[in-house]
Amino acid sequence: MFLLGVLSLIAGLAIFTMGAEMSMQTIGSKIGTYLAKSNKIWLIALVSFLIGVFVTISEPDLQILAKQVAERSGNADMMLILTLTISIGVGIFLIFGMLRIMFKVSLSILLFVFYAIAFGLCIFFVSPDFWALAFDSGGVTTGPMTVPFIMAIGAGVSSMRSGEEGHDDAFGLVSLCSVGPILSVMVL
Question: The whole model's pTM is what?
Answer without folding.
Answer: 0.84
